[in-house]
Design a protein that fits this description.
Elements: E1 8-9, E2 17-18, E3 36-45, E4 48-56, E5 59-61, E6 71-73, E7 91-97, E8 104-108, E9 116-121, E10 130-136, E11 151-156, E12 166-169, E13 180-183, E14 188-190, E15 193-201, E16 207-214, E17 222-225, H1 236-239, E18 248-256, E19 259-266, E20 270-277, H2 278-289
Antiparallel strand pairs: 1-2, 3-4, 4-7, 5-6, 7-8, 9-10, 10-11, 11-12, 13-15, 14-15, 15-16, 16-17, 18-19, 19-20
GO molecular function: hydrolase activity, acting on glycosyl bonds
Keywords: Glycosidase, Glycosyltransferase, Hydrolase, Transferase
Organism: Paenibacillus cisolokensis
Length: 290
């Protein structure tokens, strides 16, 4: 089964309707008609919307495997494409739009020979540079400073050419994030720093959510990180679904009247909403992360 991206609209942030019946982004638009495009993170800088996306060249089989994890369905591409293992790695990039409906390809944000996803732009330039969060799966080991897949950060002056990433945050000692962590939602600017939600995965592939605070002027500096998760799968629809069970996966957030609206996927089945007073969450992260 393939994944496509659609567009919903709402006046209150709770009740949504479709903008159009067709998807706004498909893998075919990106050159992979048998693939899947997923995990969009969108920010607006000046008059342009930027969408980070993850593109899988192949789809996933949704039939039960008995393991809680799906299996890949490998298609046949022409001209020998797909003969190398790296051809099937997830690739991350940026699309741009003026209206959220019509999107243009801008760039790949990570090397195509590594599995790198959870790419997320900051919603504004900082000291003249764009900043981007990443989660390269292969950047593990003593030379990288982390034994598990972690959150990295990089910067660019033009959105095309990116500096070598720096390790930003790695999994803690708590069981809920021991397998890996990755960025979830675009950073939210507060008076105490950049608030970033991130997901942590345990050895049973249960996804939970934590939070970071980054320095406003130097976002490569973590000033606080939650020790305990702030969200976990609880109702049945967050525990059972089409694909991987026990998944909550935020990719979008907005602030309205002091309330943080967190939009998150649940088990590849639905989109859910959680809200929290922004200041309360910031206070919590700063207090627990000190």
């Amino acid at each position: 089964m393939q994944n496509f991206l659609g567009l919903l609209v709402s006046d209150d942030g709770v009740n949504f309707t479709h903008v159009k019946d067709e998807p706004i982004v498909t893998p075919d638009m990106l050159g992979f008609p048998y693939g899947s495009v997923q995990d969009p993170r969108i920010v607006k800088i000046d008059d342009t919307f930027y969408m980070n996306y993850a593109l899988r060249p192949c789809a996933m089989n949704y039939y039960p495997t008995g393991t809680g994890l799906p299996e890949r369905s490998y298609p046949s591409y022409p001209d020998g494409w797909g003969e190398k293992d790296e051809h099937w790695l997830t690739r991350s990039g940026i699309l741009t739009s003026k209206d959220l409906i019509h999107w243009d390809y801008l760039c790949d944000t990570t090397p195509l020979d590594i599995n790198d996803r959870d790419n997320i732009l900051f919603p504004e330039k900082i000291n003249g540079k764009y900043y981007l969060l990443r989660r390269p799966e292969e950047y593990v080991g003593e030379s990288y400073g982390t034994e598990k897949a972690a959150i990295w950060i990089t910067s660019s002056e033009d959105l095309i050419h990116w500096e070598e990433p720096k390790l930003l945050a790695k999994a803690g000692t708590e069981a809920w994030e021991q397998k890996k962590i990755g960025g979830s939602t675009p950073p939210v600017k507060t008076d105490r720093g950049w608030l970033v939600l991130y997901h942590g995965v345990d050895y049973d592939s249960v996804y939970r959510v934590g939070a970071l605070m980054l320095d406003l002027e130097h976002p490569e500096k973590v000033i606080a990180k939650t020790k305990h998760f702030i969200m976990q799968p609880e109702p049945y629809y967050e525990k059972f679904g089409y694909q991987v069970p026990n998944v909550i996966f935020p990719t979008g957030n907005i602030v309205k009247d002091g309330l943080l609206y967190i939009y998150y996927g649940v088990t590849d089945t639905a989109i859910a909403l959680a809200t929290v007073p922004l200041q309360d969450l910031v206070d919590h992260v700063m207090q627990e992360g000190q």
